Amino acid sequence: MQPTPAPSPTPKPPVSTRGVVEELSELTGLERLAYRQIVLFLLEFVLLIGLYIGLRWLLKRGVRRVGEQLANKAATEHQAARVRSLATILQHTLHFVLAFVFIVSALSLLGINVAPIIGTASVAGLAFGFGAQKLVKDVITGYFLLLEDQYVAGDYVTIGAVTGVVEELGMRITRIRDDDGKLYILSNGDIASVCNHSRGLVGASFELSVAAAEDIAAVTKLIEETLAQQNLPEPPRVEGVTLADAAKTTLKITFKAPKGQRPAQLLPHLRATLRDALLAAKITLA
């Protein structure tokens, strides 16, 4: 006679929010209350909200900390700015996903069958896509702007008629602060062309007028010698005469701004330096 096999252990039910609340209610005696189901529902809902808030805080803190660590390890400031921009977009994306999961869980807690809702999400998404083509275009363009490394926060750019420093490259919009301090908010989907002045050396030019009787060769030599002492990346050059009449002669001067600096920031200093040098050499300005 074969021995009777021992009964297999009953598998434990999977851990769920309701299971945790059921155990808490048994420990605290809530099962003896007349409104036990209402109390259980409220406890589960509060637990769900707390879980959502906690996960959102952890995701925000974790993405920010990892992004800062990677940015600190970046070889250049440009790479660091790009990492921070990617971290911001990743953080927003995770928040949207977490919010969607929370809404589905809340609907399920209310007793609503979410399977048909999820099943029809593709149809609703298609309809939403047709109705919000501009929003979808802005978000997709924002991703490509980052992936293609067209510009990052801190770059000095010209987009359309706006020129300034990029303060933020987000999922949908780009914020640019111009030289006068005005803030421009551009939709990423409307960006057709970008001129990035922060990649490489940026060239600029300005004009300077002296009296018509002055020796142009001597003035040119003095200008180039004076500007050569300004620690510019390349020696400035006097391109030649752009205007000459009976009263004055106008010279065009070109130079390259150091990386990370805008030519407009250097122009006042260069003009003042040349003025002092020319006056010290007793050359008459016009």
Account of the protein in words:
By secondary structure, this protein is of the alpha+beta class. It has 3 domains: 19-119, no CATH class; 131-196, SH3 type barrels (Roll), CATH 2.30.30.60; 202-280, GMP Synthetase, Chain A, domain 3, CATH 3.30.300.330. It is 51% helix and 19% strand. The chain has 8 helices and 8 strands. The chain has helices spanning 17-28, 36-73, 77-109, 114-119, 121-131, 133-147, 216-227, 263-280, and strands at residues 156-159, 162-169, 173-178, 183-187, 195-196, 202-211, 237-244, 248-257. α1 (17-28) crosses α2. It starts with 16 loop residues before the first helix and ends in a 6-residue tail after the last helix.
- H-E order: HHHHHHEEEEEEHEEH
Radius of gyration: 33 Å
The biggest sheet, with number of strands, parallel, antiparallel or mixed sense and barrel status, is: 5 strands, antiparallel
The tally of domains stands at: 3
Total helices: the number is: 8
Number of extended strands: 8
Helix content: 40-55%
Low-confidence stretches: none
Strand order of the largest sheet: 4-3-2-1-5
Described by the principal axes of the CA atoms, the overall outline is elongated
Q: How much strand content do the residues show?
A: 15-25%
- Report the structural category: alpha+beta
* Average pLDDT score: 79
Distance between the termini: 123 Å
